[in-house]
Amino acid sequence: MAHVPASERRPQLVQAALDLMAREGVAAGSTRAIAAELGVAQATVHYTFGTKKDLYRAVVEQLTADFVDSVRGVDPGDGPFGEQVRTLVHALWENSTKADGRCELLSEFAALAMRDPDLQDIMWAMQRGIEGTAAEILGALADAHGIRLALPAPEVAVFFLAGFDGLTSRHLAQRTPGEPTDPDTLRALDLLVTTAVGLCLGGAAVS
What we know:
Radius of gyration: 19 Å
Oligomer: single chain
Distance between the termini: 58 Å
């Protein structure tokens, strides 16, 4: 195989590790298996990622970036503030619950982090990054409508994402592959959006 610069090989290995773990779980992501996934020598994985923590961090960062990019790429439309928030949230939900194993992978990392300080550090950095992005998007929408938020955007983001994570866990626990989200979960998602928008507007109408 022709020589590939490290700057090109690293993202290839991250994607291979992500695809493998999303399909088979974190435990399946050995350096040997990742190397086989991409068709390179096992030593290449060791050379590129000095430790398992480095590899996990790279995979989680890629997962996070993919989720964030998917939301940033959504057109919220020209409707009122509340409707635009709802559009973005439902786009995030659709992306987060796709049957591609990525949501399950993040949940698996989160569970492992409860007993692994290294993983806890990685997942906490991810959480703060997502909260910051959510606050930024919320603030930008409010500015576009000339709205002064009743609560700081970061506080609303923390509240919303805590609820969103809980609904995601509920969905993963009871869903049947290939089946749509159950009506109770979708109703709860809409209630979460309504509450978050209400916090933003200080109890004003959701629109």
